[in-house]
Design brief:
By secondary structure, this protein is an alpha/beta fold. The chain has a domain of about 70 residues. Helices cover about 25% and strands about 25% of the residues. The strands form 3 sheets. Strands 7-8-9-4-10-11 form a 6-stranded mixed sheet, sandwiched between helices. The longest helix has 18 residues. The chain is globular. The N terminus and C terminus are likely disordered.
């Protein structure tokens, strides 16, 4: 089966992966709380003949405790949509609601509070502070949230234990592998108990086995902590973990597939 950009759904680092998906609507599911909602979302860069329409009237809903992926080729608008959902950028028109709060109506202080308390961010490049230890990287955002130092340290150690790095609490980023740095980044993203976890290409800089362990941590966080996880990714291993997959093309949601509407086949690695 082909993706909207005509590329076969497969993982180049692993076995072939294929999926067959039927179109799915974006109507609400009765009784299930919506935590992210976009309405007629548009984003235009530049003006006049040089204007680029990165998003063109996107409507989507993400439910509490859902695990979704946003997929699409380079230039599709996938990253722009991800940044909008994370309140990291403002739309040219349309609305973004996080937990039914209109982000555009928030003051700078209210927006900072939203980012600190409601949303956890995991970036492709990790963005750890080089001169801080793993524990200090995890606990720094807690200071901004006003958590006392002793409670922050206790929670930080619990989170490092969650991602399997309690024994590396005093290591700095230069002393850790890429996979370990990404796991510290996941712990940091969870530090203020967010309701939404946004992961931007979380496995892009990792080898296959390390990337798999990171994906399993994200899945466990989603299932055990009921955190809504939104991944922007090219990694097709996520297909089997996600409740829904959104394919983006030319600034629009071209297709949405539920997991039970996809047939996923995993092959084996040729030795």
């Amino acid at each position: 089966m082909n993706e909207p950009n005509g590329q076969k759904i497969s993982n180049s680092a692993s076995a072939g992966t294929s999926a067959i998906a039927k179109p799915a609507g974006s109507s609400p599911t009765p009784g299930r709380p919506v935590v992210i909602r976009t309405l007629g979302l548009n984003k235009i860069y530049g003006r006049g003949d040089a204007a680029t329409h990165a998003l063109a009237g996107v409507d989507l809903m993400v439910y509490r405790s859902e695990f979704i992926s946003i997929m699409g080729p380079s230039g599709s608008g996938k990253s722009t949509l991800f940044n909008m959902i994370g309140a990291l950028d403002q739309p040219s028109s349309g609305r973004i609601l996080i937990d039914e709060v209109d982000v555009a109506q928030l003051s700078a202080d209210e927006l900072a509070f939203l980012r600190c308390r409601k949303i956890g961010y995991i970036f492709q490049q990790y963005h750890l502070i080089a001169y801080l230890t793993a524990l200090e990287n995890v606990t720094t955002p807690m200071a901004f949230a006003g958590l006392p130092a002793d409670r922050a340290r206790k929670r930080g150690m619990e989170l490092l234990d969650l991602v399997g790095l309690a024994d590396r609490w005093d290591h700095r980023p230069i002393e850790m592998s890429g996979g370990q740095q990404q796991r510290v980044a996941i712990a940091r993203a969870l530090c203020n108990n967010p309701m939404i976890l946004l992961a931007d290409e979380p496995t892009a800089n990792l080898d296959f086995a390390t990337g798999q362990s990171v994906l399993e941590i994200l899945q466990r966080i989603n299932q055990e902590r009921q955190v809504t996880v939104v991944c922007s990714t090219h990694d097709h291993r996520l297909l089997s973990m996600c409740e829904r997959v959104f394919w983006v093309r030319d600034g629009e949601i071209e297709r949405v597939a539920h997991r039970d509407e996809m047939t996923i086949k995993l092959g084996s690695i040729d030795e």
